[in-house]
Design brief:
The protein is α/β, with parallel strands linked by helices. It is built from 18 helices and 19 strands.
Length: 497
C-alpha cells in the first residue's frame, strides 16, 4: 500500500473514503478482479434515548472517518439516474437508491463507464488450427492485447483506459455463428414461413455479433436472410456510433444496412408495442444491470433498503431505511411467491444463531447486504408488456470470485496503466469502474416465468455451445477447445417455444 503507484492512484481516482483498499493484478482473461474488505457499522446499539425518526435509519460508514451524516441526509434531495442524465459533472450533496447510483456510474451519457471509458478488445479472428493448446492460445491472446493497446497509445496514451473482451470478440465468427444457428433452427421450427425473423439485440458492443449472425444467415440461409430484421437497442451513444461504423466497414458489412436498425435508447424507457414474434438477445448485459442493496434485521427479518448519500466533498455514505420503494418491494414479493427452490439469502440458517450473533460485541444490527436485481425485474416486465411474443436468449456469469461483501454482490474493478485494480465497495468514483454482478439463473428462471408466463431452459454456456457450435472450428492442435474451456462461469437461459 506504500508504493508510489498506489499513492498516485489514490490521488487520481480514489479520493473517496469508501475506496479505502486497493490491490493490483495483471489483466485477467475475464472481467474479474479480487480482494475485498468489510466495513463495519458505526451506529451505537441499545440507545434507548434515540430520536424515533432517526432510529428508522441505519448508517453504514467507513472505518476511517465515521462521520455522522444524518443532518445532511435529512437535507439533501433524493435524485434518480434519469434526472442526472443531463449532468455533466458527478453529483454532490444528493442522495439516491443504490440502483440509481450504479446506473449513473455506468450509463450517464457524460461521465458513465460505458459512455466515456470502455474500449472493447476486438482482435482479428484466431486461426485455432495453428494454435498448439489452450495455454498457447492464452499466450497469443496476451500478445494481441499488448499490440492492440500499443496501437491505441500511438494515438493517445491513456492510463485509465478500460479495455475488456467478450466471447463474441475472442471466438469470432464462430461464437456468433452458434447464436445464428440457434436462431435459424428455432425460427424454422416455429415461425417460418408465416413471420419474418425479427431479432433484437440488447447492448451490442462493437456490433460484432450482429455482423457474424447476419453473415451466417446470408451465406447459408439466403431465403431466411431476405426476411431477417436485426434491431439493436443500445443505451450508449458512443457504442451506437461504433455499431453504425461497423456497417460501413466493408462491402460485406454494407450489404446488411437495409436489414439493420440501431436504436440509441435505454430499454427501460421502451414504450413501443411489438406484437409480432421476435427473438431477444441479451448476451453479457444482465451483469451490468443496476441492483438495489437490502439489509435485514436479523431478529424481525424486516428488510431495509440502501440510500447512498454523496456529500459536498464527493464522499459516499450508506443509509438504510425501512421504507422499501415499490420496485424493490415488488421484486421481494415476486421472488417469494415464484421461486420453487431455496435460494441464497442473508436470512438462511438458524434464527436462533442469528439472534446470538446479533448480541455479540461489535455485532451490527443488520445483516450483510443482499443485492437484488430490480432492473432485471423491470426488463422482464417490459418484455412481457411490449414484446409479448418474444423468445429470450441470454448468457451471463452465474459465478464471480472474490466479490464485495454480501449476497449476490458485485465485482468492482477498474484498469490503471494496464493493470486491474479491485476495490472493496460498489460506491466508487462514478464512471471509472466496472460494476458487474453474478446472475442466479435458477431464481431468474422462476421470476421470468412468473412475469411472462413462459417456460425456459437453463444450461451452462459450454452445454449450449456443444449443441449449437461446430466445435472443430475452435479446436487447437492438441484437441483442446478454448471456446468451451473459457467462460466456465457462464450460463445460458432461453425461452422454450
Amino acid at each position: 500500500m506504500d508504493s508510489p503507484l498506489v499513492c498516485h492512484v489514490f490521488r487520481k481516482l480514489f479520493s473517496h473514503q469508501t475506496c479505502s483498499q486497493l490491490r493490483f493484478y495483471s489483466p485477467p482473461p475475464f472481467r474479474i478482479a479480487h480482494s475485498w474488505k468489510r466495513h463495519k457499522s458505526s451506529r451505537a446499539r441499545g440507545n434507548e434515548d434515540a430520536d424515533p425518526e432517526r432510529d428508522s435509519l441505519w448508517q453504514q460508514r467507513s472505518d476511517i472517518l465515521p462521520t455522522d451524516k444524518s443532518k445532511e441526509f435529512a437535507k439533501y434531495p433524493m435524485v434518480t439516474a434519469q434526472e442526472l442524465r443531463t449532468q455533466r459533472r458527478r453529483p454532490r450533496k444528493v442522495k439516491m437508491l443504490t440502483r440509481d447510483f450504479i446506473e449513473d456510474s455506468l450509463y450517464n451519457p457524460n461521465y458513465g463507464y460505458f459512455s466515456a471509458q470502455v474500449v472493447i478488445f476486438s482482435p482479428k479472428p484466431f486461426d485455432f488450427k495453428s494454435i498448439r493448446s489452450d495455454f498457447h492460445f492464452h499466450k497469443i491472446l496476451g500478445q494481441k492485447y499488448t499490440e492492440f493497446e500499443d496501437k491505441l497509445d500511438e494515438t493517445e496514451v491513456n492510463d485509465t483506459r478500460q479495455l475488456w473482451h467478450t466471447p463474441t470478440e475472442l471466438f469470432r465468427p464462430y461464437y456468433g455463428e452458434a447464436i445464428a444457428r440457434y436462431l435459424v433452427t428455432n425460427y424454422k421450427n416455429t415461425h417460418h414461413p408465416f413471420h419474418d425473423l425479427v431479432i433484437f439485440e440488447l447492448g451490442a458492443g462493437n456490433g460484432t455479433l450482429m455482423l457474424n449472425v447476419l453473415d451466417y444467415i446470408r451465406d447459408f440461409y439466403p431465403d431466411v436472410y431476405d426476411r431477417t430484421r436485426f434491431k439493436v437497442i443500445e443505451i450508449s451513444s458512443a457504442l451506437a456510433a461504433v455499431q453504425k461504423a461497423q456497417l460501413k466497414s466493408s462491402a460485406s458489412a454494407r450489404g446488411h444496412a437495409s436489414h439493420v436498425e440501431i436504436i440509441n435508447r435505454s430499454i427501460f424507457t421502451w414504450d413501443t408495442f411489438v406484437g409480432t414474434p421476435c427473438y431477444f438477445l441479451a448476451l453479457e448485459v444482465f451483469d451490468n444491470f443496476p441492483h438495489d442493496a437490502i439489509r435485514y434485521d436479523p431478529i424481525t427479518e424486516q428488510p431495509h433498503q440502501c440510500i447512498v448519500l454523496i456529500d459536498e466533498d464527493g464522499d459516499f455514505y450508506e443509509f438504510y431505511t425501512k421504507e422499501i420503494d415499490p420496485l424493490a418491494e415488488r421484486y421481494l414479493r415476486v421472488r417469494q411467491s415464484a421461486c420453487s427452490r431455496p435460494f441464497n439469502h442473508p436470512l438462511r440458517g438458524s434464527r436462533l444463531w442469528r439472534n446470538i450473533k446479533s448480541r455479540l460485541p461489535l455485532a451490527t444490527n443488520l445483516t450483510d447486504p443482499e443485492y437484488i436485481p430490480t432492473r432485471l425485474l423491470q426488463f422482464f416486465e417490459i418484455l412481457s408488456r411490449c414484446f409479448p411474443k418474444h423468445q429470450l436468449l441470454t448468457s451471463d456469469f452465474h459465478n464471480l470470485p472474490n466479490q464485495v461483501k454480501g449476497t449476490n454482490s458485485p465485482v468492482v474493478q477498474t484498469r490503471y496503466q494496464r493493470r486491474v485494480v479491485a476495490v472493496s465497495m460498489p460506491y466508487v468514483n462514478q464512471g471509472f469502474f466496472d460494476i458487474l454482478f453474478p446472475t442466479d439463473f435458477q431464481v431468474m428462471k422462476d421470476i421470468y416465468g412468473a412475469i411472462t408466463g413462459k417456460q425456459t431452459r437453463v444450461m451452462t454456456q459450454e452445454e449450449f455451445l456443444k449443441t449449437c457450435a461446430i466445435l472443430e472450428d475452435t479446436e487447437t492442435r492438441d484437441g483442446e477447445n478454448p471456446m468451451l474451456s473459457w467462460y466456465k462461469n457462464a450460463s445460458v437461459m432461453h425461452t422454450i417455444a
